[in-house]
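Form 7-S
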Amino acid sequence: MIGGLDDRLVSFVESPGFAPAAIVVAFVAGALHAVGPGHGKSLAAAYLIGTDGRVRDAAYLSGRAWR
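Output:
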C-alpha cells in the first residue's frame, strides 16, 4: 500500500485496546440505529414479548400509534 499504510493499519487493529473500543463503538452505533425511524414496531414487539403481552395489548399499542 501507499507508504506503509497497510502495516500501520495492521498494527492498529492488532493493538490491545482495539477490540474493546470496537465493541463499544458497535454497541453505540447499534443503539443509535435502533432508535431511528422505522424501528418502533420492533421495539414494541420486543416489549410485548418481554412482558408476556396479549393480542389485546398489541391492538391497543397499534391503535395508539395511529393518533
